[in-house]
Write a structure and sequence with these properties.
By secondary structure, this protein is an alpha+beta fold. It has 19 helices and 25 strands. The strands form seven sheets. It has a seven-stranded antiparallel sheet with strand order 4-3-5-2-11-10-12. A hairpin with a 2-residue loop joins strand 13 and strand 14. The radius of gyration is 23 Å and the shape is globular. The protein starts with 17 loop residues before the first strand and ends with a helix.
């Protein structure tokens, strides 16, 4: 979502980009006296599988044949909707979310602190009343690159927004549409927006899923008995016992009601799926665009080793995201694979004062180097990406303190050069470590490694099965049908709000009291 003004305290996970959202919707789950909240319970389970896409807030909206029922809160899905989580009335939130249809959302906030009124107003799904069409709830993964321009236009007409989320813009445009049918209203609203979006929407009579014409973010369709499911990744279908039907196509709208499923085209554009979904965002056990994520990450590691293998005693992944690539690197290079870094699964997210001593303590609570394994050894340390470099530098120091002889860092993606504006929380261009140093040698000295190498852009595309690779690496994305703007700076969708003369976001936040 488009919640800017990011000032995020140090966190041990900050060496990675953060996907901001996941969506899940179900229609026709059935409900009875024994389990009137079945749709909401399935939605909560699906969101749990999608927790990696957003870990600070979540919400579910259900429909009970007469009204929308909602529960939204800051926290992980298990904490918000888990068994034994009672509200003031003594009942858990899920027991109140009755009905045979529901949609849900899990969110990674980008507005600073995770709690407080500002973030509560941004938690999805959002909903509105649409006159004769009735109520409509909406959950959105992605980012509208003209949201601020549209808000400025709507504010000039007297509209006052309740959140900083661009999802509210879509609902507002729907409310102003002169179309009489719900699906047409949504299509009309989306004709005004620019950017990336994968959407689930719920009315009294329909479940709707939409993917933007470029297909930047994933969205899949599944079946669970007689119920239909629309969600961000196949891992959510697996966890609820559903069957994968197919990927929803770029520019496709799926409309599900009591008569079954219908599909419509809302627009056409060159396919530009986010390649970082394969590198980091999607869960390794998901199938994305017909390809298994874990297998692709292993292939990425193999390509990394093919491009430059350094003699060493062992290959070590930075857990957990670096593991598949490290496995591939070890297989290709013939260097033994070792799990010499242990990650605590109970440390949680840590936001504390960002002095150097505190930063090291945060990392040490989450990661620990097995001293006995690495003492006197030459190691290849594999990670999927480096964003700021803060955690990487501390981890390398931990290896040095453990008595390692050499540390060779290998990154299973090209250098991150540019921010993402299509639904990912990223630092500004100047905060990216690759832009802070003139060459790799300076970065090596900063990180304290003996050598540092990145995967090339062509190598990344070879790993996903592309063979006809242009000589100009900035043209690879267009040729292969991917968005790789974070690596090349080539943005396939117009950045309206970031163009010269765009609306000042601070004005809107000041009006909202943020």
């Amino acid at each position: 979502m488009n919640d800017m003004l990011t000032t995020r305290p140090f966190d041990a996970d900050d060496d990675h980009f953060h996907e901001e959202c996941a969506v899940f919707g179900i229609w026709g789950a059935g409900s009875d006296e024994d389990n009137p909240s079945r749709a909401a319970a399935i939605t909560a389970t699906g969101l749990h599988a999608l927790q990696h896409r957003g870990q600070e807030a979540c919400g579910i909206v259900a429909f009970d044949k007469s009204q929308f029922l909602v529960h939204r809160a800051v926290g992980l899905v298990g904490d918000v909707f888990g068994k034994g989580k009672a509200d003031r009335g003594g009942a858990g939130p899920l027991t109140r979310l009755v009905g045979s249809s529901a949609i849900g959302h899990t969110r990674y906030a980008t507005s600073g602190k995770g709690a407080g009124p500002a973030s509560i107003r941004n938690i999805q799904p959002l909903w509105t009343d649409l006159d004769e069409t009735g109520g409509f709830a909406l959950a959105h993964n992605g980012n509208l690159t003209n949201a601020m321009a549209l808000k400025a236009e709507l504010r000039a007409e007297g509209r006052r927004f309740q959140s900083t989320s661009d999802t509210e813009v879509i609902l507002d445009l729907m409310a102003r549409s002169r179309e009489r049918r719900l699906a047409n209203r949504l299509i009309d609203a989306l004709s005004r927006v620019v950017g990336a979006y994968s959407i689930v929407g719920l009315s009294a009579k329909k479940l709707i899923g939409v993917r933007d014409p470029s297909g930047v973010r994933p969205l899949v369709l599944g079946r669970l008995d007689n119920a239909w499911i629309i969600c961000s990744e196949t891992c959510a279908l697996d966890i609820v016992g559903a069957t994968f039907v197919r990927d929803i196509e770029p520019g496709e709208m799926i409309v599900i009601d009591e008569d079954g499923m219908q599909t419509r085209r809302i627009g056409a554009a060159p396919r530009r799926f986010c390649i970082f979904e394969y590198i980091y965002f999607s869960r390794p056990d998901s199938f994305v665009e017909g390809r298994n994520v874990y297998s692709i990450r292993q292939a990425i590691g193999r390509e990394l080793a093919k491009e430059e293998t350094h003699s060493a005693d062992m290959v070590i992944p930075v857990p957990d995201s670096g593991t598949p690539a490290a496995v591939g690197y070890a297989k290709e290079s013939g260097i033994p694979f070792e799990l010499a870094v242990t990650r605590s699964q109970l440390a949680g997210r840590s936001f504390i004062e960002p002095d150097q001593e505190s930063r090291e303590q945060v990392v040490r609570r989450k990661l620990n180097v097995n001293r006995d394994m690495v003492r006197g050894k030459s190691v290849v340390l594999v990670d999927d990406s480096i964003v700021r470099g803060t955690t990487s530098k501390i981890l390398v120091k931990m290896f040095r303190d453990a008595g390692v002889r050499e540390v060779h860092m290998r990154i299973a993606s090209p250098p991150t050069r540019s921010p993402c504006y299509y639904g990912v929380d990223t630092p500004s261009k100047g905060e990216l470590i690759f832009n802070q140093y003139a060459n790799l040698e300076q970065m090596e000295r900063h990180l304290g490694v003996d050598s540092l190498r990145y995967l090339s852009v062509p190598g990344m595309y070879r790993a996903v099965g592309e063979t006809d690779i242009p000589e100009d690496e900035t043209e690879c994305g267009a040729k292969a049908g991917y968005c790789d703007a974070c690596f090349t700076g080539k943005y396939p969708i117009r950045l309206v709000d970031n163009s010269e003369g765009s609306v000042n976001q601070k004005d809107l936040f000041r009006e909202l009291g943020y």
